[in-house]
Each structure stands twice: as structure tokens, then as C-alpha cells.
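Data availability (excerpt). The following record was deposited with the supplementary files.
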Amino acid sequence: MPEPEPEPAGDDRGALMSTVFGHMAAQALAAAVRLGVADRLGDDARDATDVAADLGTDPDATRRLLRALAASGLAAEPRPGAFALTSRGALLRTDRADSMADFVRMFLDPAMIGAWARLDDSVRTGGPVFADLFGTDFFGHLAAHPELSRAFDASMRQGGRTAAALLPAVLDLSGARSVTDVGGGDGALLAAVLSAYPGLRGVLFETPRAAADAGPVLDEAGVADRCTVVTGDFFASVPAGSDVYLLKGVVHDWDDDRAATLLGHVRAVLPPDGRILVVEVVLPDAVDGSQSPMMYLGDLNMLVNVGGCERTEAEFRALCARAGLVVTRVTRLPEPVGLSVIAAVRA
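Predicted structure:
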């Protein structure tokens, strides 16, 4: 294998090489999470041989993995052959409330990244390649693989915590009587909203699988007595009865036809004075640095795996118009969330 030649910092060739080797750094990270390296390192520096003994792995290969993690800033090597987690690496521990281990496990799972090798095919066709590789669509694959499904749900919860803390104040639900969270997962966001608005009632609408963990979440937040869990398929119908419908991280999973169908089902049960609040990434009309590069990579991830996309404000307005809605306001959430609230009413 050819050895890369070091390039000066800031050099264009060096930047390209860092991108090329980036997938290797990601795989080292994924291996560390699958092996449970961070949990074994714990709070103190440990010799690589001791970590290998705990993991049942080859001592020299374990040292080399830990060395690569240290070079990537996830660990430090205070003395030869001994390693300790950095603050960044400590986020991989599973005993932390803010652990990112499931997030890493999910997004670097072979099923998630497998389609990326066929990105060029998705660019040629404009559609996902996931089903070509795995014989079913992404969500069907999740349903058939419980451990991957668990990691997916956990990673979505982890990614939604910051948004859940910020959204209630931005949504301004004063005067609302009931809110339905469409595709609301385990109810963490709805629980935060109901906690912020004691007079509000809520409905969590999800698939049976995704809603399975909602009970404890709603109980812990003290809002279970004001929330009803309803299961179903939002491509068939959406439950009536609320004056506000909330959809966070749902619309971007689908192409325009499917997304318009979903929004149309919400429009069908929306009262005349009701509103829809869509919480998604809103891309600028041209790349201007206002959104993280991760958002554009996330857009490609939607392309190869599920066929969805991130949209600009103009695209959201056009999509809502197809569903009989008109956008009234777009509000960017405070950093570092990178999301916006698209408010829409009946046209």
C-alpha cells in the first residue's frame, strides 16, 4: 500500500488527503465503539495490554487502535503504551447521559454506510440504493434488525436533546389547546413541550415500534396524564383533534411526493385556525457558510439511504403549497442546533 506523504497544514493537497483518510478515522472510531474501548479505559490512563485483556483482543492491534484514537484527539498517550480518554473520547462511554456511542454505532453501521459506496449511482438516478443492497428499504431493514433499530432510536434521542431544550420557547404555543407530535419517537420532544406549557394536552403519533419506549419518558417528565399515545401509519392518516401539529425530523426522510402526501394528511385534519410546525434543516439558496458542512453530507445521506432530502426555504414553501398549506414564518433555532421551525397554515 502506498504511504501518504505529510503535507503542510493548510495545503490544498493535504486537505484533500485528510478527506480521503477521513473514512479510515471514522472506521477506527466505529471499531472502538463496537469493542467498548471507552468503557474499558474509564477515568484513568490504562496500559493497552490491560485494555486488550479486558476486551479479549490482540494486545498489539489494540495498542495500534488506541494510538490512532490518540492521534485523532479521542485519547491521549501520557506514557508509551498507556492511554486515557480526552473529553471528546469520553463521549463514547455508555454510562454517560450525553453518550454519543449509539449515535456513532448507528451512523457507522455497515448498513448505514454501505449505500455510500454507491453514491455515484444515486447521483445518476436521483434515488436511494439501499434497497438494492439489502433487499428492503431502510426502515424495513430497521424493523428486521432489533439491535440496529435500538441504536437508531437511541441516536435519534441523543440528537434531539438540545432541540428539545430550545424548541418550547421558540414554538410559542400560548393559546394552543392540544398538540400532536407526528412521528415523535419516544415522546421526548413532546414531553419537553408539555412541561413548558402546563395547560396543553398532547398526542404522540408513531409506529408501534417507535412508540414502545414512550411510556417511561412521559412518566418521568410528569406529563403522562396529559398525553395520549396513538400508533399508526402517517401515510394512511393522521389523528384529528389538535390545533397544532408538530413534525420534527420527519419530512426530510421522504421525497417530495411522499412528503406532500404526509403533509396533506395533516392538512386534512387541521382545523381552520390550526397550524403545522415543521422542524428541519433549512438550507440557504446557495452555500454561504451559514450551515455546517455536516448538513450537506446529511442531505447526501438521505439521498443514498432513504431517498429524502434537506430543503431550502423556497422548496419548503413549494412543498407546503402542494399540500394545500401556506408558510407563514421560518424561524432559525439558536446555535448549535442548525434547525429551523417552518410554520404553515391552511391555504
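Summary of structural features: The chain has a mean pLDDT of 92.
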